[in-house]
């Protein structure tokens, strides 16, 4: 399991919802970005139990797997910059970020 959250999309009833799988395996699904409604489950398998017929789309393995949570709690990622070797990442909306390795874990 990675040391950072992994972004995914949940497809259900014609809609798409962004989500994150945390390093612990816990799944967080953003149901309403404007109102801030989210669902949390112990695993993505448990999350799917609450959404009959839903499927999870993971990022293309050919893309950078970096993802994180932005300063305002919004999900960022997956990184779409290819190829790249530096610490700077960018998602499909243009949001840019970097993963800091100089901070204590959990900061």
In short:
With 107 residues, the protein is mainly β. The protein is built from 1 helix and 9 strands. 18% of the residues are buried.
Radius of gyration: 14 Å
Largest sheet geometry: 5 strands, antiparallel
Q: Which residue ranges are poorly predicted, with pLDDT under 50 across at least 5 consecutive positions?
A: none
Question: What is the number of strand segments?
Answer: 9
What would you call the structural class? mainly beta
The percentage of residues in β strands lies in 35-45%
Instruction: Tell me the number of structural domains.
Output: 1
Element order: H for helix, E for strand: EEEEHEEEEE
Kindly state the mean pLDDT as a whole number? Answer: 75
Number of helices: 1
Apparent shape: globular
Q: Helix content range of the residues, please?
A: under 10%
């Amino acid at each position: 399991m990675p040391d950072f959250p992994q972004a995914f999309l949940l497809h259900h009833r014609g809609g798409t919802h962004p989500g994150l799988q945390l390093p612990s395996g816990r799944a967080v699904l953003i149901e309403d970005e404007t109102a801030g409604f989210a669902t949390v489950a112990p695993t993505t398998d448990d999350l799917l139990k609450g959404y009959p017929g839903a499927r999870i789309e993971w990022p293309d393995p050919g893309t950078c797997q970096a993802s994180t949570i932005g300063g305002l709690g919004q999900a960022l990622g997956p990184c779409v910059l290819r190829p790249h070797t530096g610490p700077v990442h960018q998602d499909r909306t243009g949001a840019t970020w970097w993963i800091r390795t100089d901070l204590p874990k959990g900061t």
